[in-house]
Known about the structure:
Blueprint: H1 12-18, H2 22-50, H3 54-71, E1 79-80, H4 86-117, H5 121-124, H6 129-146, H7 148-152, H8 164-174, H9 180-199, H10 205-223, H11 232-236, H12 253-285, H13 291-304, E2 314-315, H14 317-325, H15 331-347, H16 349-352, H17 357-372, H18 374-380, H19 385-400, H20 403-425, E3 427-431, E4 434-436, E5 447-449, E6 454-460, H21 465-477, E7 485-492, H22 498-513, E8 517-521, H23 525-533, E9 545-546, H24 549-567
Parallel strand pairs: 6-7, 7-8, 8-9
Antiparallel strand pairs: 1-2, 3-6, 4-5
Amino acid sequence: xxxxxxxxxxxxxxxxxxxxxxxxxxxxxxxxxxxxxxxxxxxxxxxxxxxxxxxxxxxxxxxxxxxxxxxxxxxxxxxxxxxxxxxxxxxxxxxxxxxxxxxxxxxxxxxxxxxxxxxxxxxxxxxxxxxxxxxxxxxxxxxxxxxxxxxxxxxxxxxxxxxxxxxxxxxxxxxxxxxxxxxxxxxxxxxxxxxxxxxxxxxxxxxxxxxxxxxxxxxxxxxxxxxxxxxxxxxxxxxxxxxxxxxxxxxxxxxxxxxxxxxxxxxxxxxxxxxxxxxxxxxxxxxxxxxxxxxxxxxxxxxxxxxxxxxxxxxxxxxxxxxxxxxxxxxxxxxxxxxxxxxxxxxxxxxxxxxxxxxxxxxxxxxxxxxxxxxxxxxxxxxxxxxxxxxxxxxxxxxxxxxxxxxxxxxxxxxxxxxxxxxxxxxxxxxxxxxxxxxxxxxxxxxxxxxxxxxxxxxxxxxxxxxxxxxxxxxxxxxxxxxxxxxxxxxxxxxxxxxxxxxxxxxxxxxxxxxxxxxxxxxxxxxxxxxxxxxxxxxxxxxxxxxxxxxxxxxxxxxxxxxxxxxxxxx
Length: 571
C-alpha cells in the first residue's frame, strides 16, 4: 500500500459508536423503521423495472443498505437500489443475462474501492453539473416510458425494442388495447402519491398508495369479481421467502472485456449519486462526509450484493432525506432500516403478491417526475450556451442511445467547452515603446521605456495547447517588425503544458536563427521547472531568465543598444 499511501478509510459507523447513547438509539430506531417501510415499494418497483424479481430488489436493499451504513463515510446515508440504475441494468440483462449483471456489478464495486483507495473522492465531485442534470433527466424520461404498459394495462402483441423511439412506436400501435380498470388503478395510485404529502409530510405517498390501492384492488377482485388488474403475484408467481445463499461469480477475460464499459458506467453513476446524496445530507445535518471512505463503502456493498443475486447499490437521496427528517443521525439508523426490510422479506412477502403492477408503475412515474429536475433545467437554460449544449446532448444521448455513451460524450463535450473558455481567457498583449510594470493591485505605477528594437509579449493565463496556438498566431502576425530582442512576460502564467513548451522552443530557435534574442520575465517556479525538464532553459542565457519585468527590460535594452552599436550608425 506504499504506492497509495495510508488508506483513507474511516467508516462513520466506528466514529458514531464511540459516543453513542440511548437517546441517539431511540431516534435512530424510529428513523430506521420509517425508512425501512418507505424503502419497500421503491426496492420492489426498481427491481421490477430493472428486469428482476421483487425479491431481488429487497435483498439488494437489505445487504446494500447494511454495508453502506456500516462501511460508508456519511452518518445518515441510506443505500439501496435506485432509479438511476434501471436503464443500465435492464440493458445489461437483455444482452448478457443475470450472470453478466453480476459480473458487471462486482467489477463496478472493485472500481469504486480503487477510486476510494486512490483518494479520488473529491475529484468525482468535479463532474460538470450540466452532465449530471442531463443524464438524470434522460434516465427519468426512460423510466417514465418503460411504465406505460403496466400503467395502462396494454396488451403488447409485438416485441418491445430497446430504443426509445421504437418503444413508443409499439406503445402507440397497442394503445387501443388499454385496460380501463388497470388505468383507473394507476391513476388513483398516482393521485394518492401526489396528494398524501399535502395532508402530512411524514406519511410517504408511495407506501400509502400501495397499501390503500392494494386493499381496494384485492376487495374488488375477491368480492366483486374484478378481473384484468395484474398483480405482482400474477406476473412473478409465489415469491420465495428464503434468503438466498451466496454463490460464486465466474469470470473470464472475454466477458470482462465486454462488460468493463458497463461496469465503469455503474461505478461512475454510483459514485456520482452517492456523493451527491451525501453532499445534500451534509447541507442539512451540518456533517462532513469522508468522500473516499464513502466510495470504498459503496464499493464493498457492490462487491457483496451480486454474490446474493442482487443489483447495483448506491446512496438514495429520497431515503436519506427521509432518514434525516425522522431523526436519524448515525449509521445505526441505516442498519435498522436493513433489519426492518429483512423482517418484512422473511414474514410479509405473501402480502406483497397482491400489489397491482399499475400501482408500482405509478410509483415509478412519480420517481421519474422527481428525477427529471425540470425546474433545474429551466434555470440552466439561462446559463452560457456551452453548458446548455452539454446538458441537451447528454440528455438526448441518454434517451436515444444509452447512459454509457451519454456520459462519455458528455464529459468530452464538457472538457472541450472548458478548454475553449480557458483559452479565451488567456490573453496576449504586445508592447513596443512603453510598458506599465506595476501589478494591478499596486497604486504606484512604474512606466518602463523600451529601447528601439525591443518588443514585449505578455501572456496572461495558462499557456496550454489552446493558448499556445493563439500565441503562435500573434507571433506570426507581428513577424514583419523584426525586433532585436523579444521579452516574453510570463508573470501570470500559472502552468505550461507540452504544447506550450514546444511552441516556446520553436519561437526561441527561430528567433535565434533570425538574430533575435529572447528574454523571459516573471517566470514562476513551477513553470521554470518545466522549462528546465524540457531543456528549454539551455537555449537561453541564464541571465536572460528574469524574475521581474524591470530586470528583463534592463537586460533587453542593453542587448538592443549593443546590437545597434555593433551595426553602427546608418549613413
